[in-house]
Amino acid sequence: MSVSDKKKSKKASAKGGNKSLVIVLALAMIVAVGGLIVYEISGDNRKVAGGPQLAYFTDDDGKTIFTASADQTPPFDHNGKQAVLAVCFTIDGGKTHWIQHLQRLNLAGRKALEEYKKRKPEEQDPIDLTRLNNEALQVKAPGAPDQEWTQPSNYKKYIQIITPKPPAGSSGTIEPYTP
Q: Which phi and psi (to 5°) does residue 153 adopt?
């Protein structure tokens, strides 16, 4: 084997290794982000002094947002419409913001989460929340058709939807935009 063949072989091995690393990192990110999302939706982190925290929701597919208790489990009824969580970001300290994606639990997941919340703390297993995330969490871009609701199991599309992307032509540090 010539020196140039050895270099080509090493480059090919490195590229294959990089692809594997990217896949592993993407899967780890899905699990971490998904667990955080279910944790956020579950309301367990909302027990702070001064009452429940607020979150942004929308009942018109992201055209407008409103604030409500973060203890709500989306979708829920709001003025006769189904409201879902609106995950928002900013790049200018909150002067402007955008809705990156909408999220909800499917009906079975909503029921399962309500049952989970009724358990005593010692009976609440975080693995159940992870399972719930993988089976019940759904996200979509604002304005996308209803058939575009996507679950974490479709990881490429899921990551594409939840990864914050500022509006075209804007720049800055991406930060969560919260009430």
A: -65, -25
> pLDDT, tens digit, for every residue of 41-73?
444 443 445 566 999 999 999 999 999 999 888
Domain that holds residue 152: 3-176
pLDDT in tens, 125-173: 888 888 877 788 999 999 999 999 999 989 999 999 999 999 898 889 9
Domain count, the chain: 1
CA distance 89 to 10: 41
Cα 14 to Cα 2, 3, 4, 21, distances in angstroms: 18, 17, 15, 10
What are the C-alpha distances in Å from 63 to residues 58, 66, 83, 102, 148?
A: 8, 10, 12, 11, 17
E strand or H helix at 67: strand 66-69
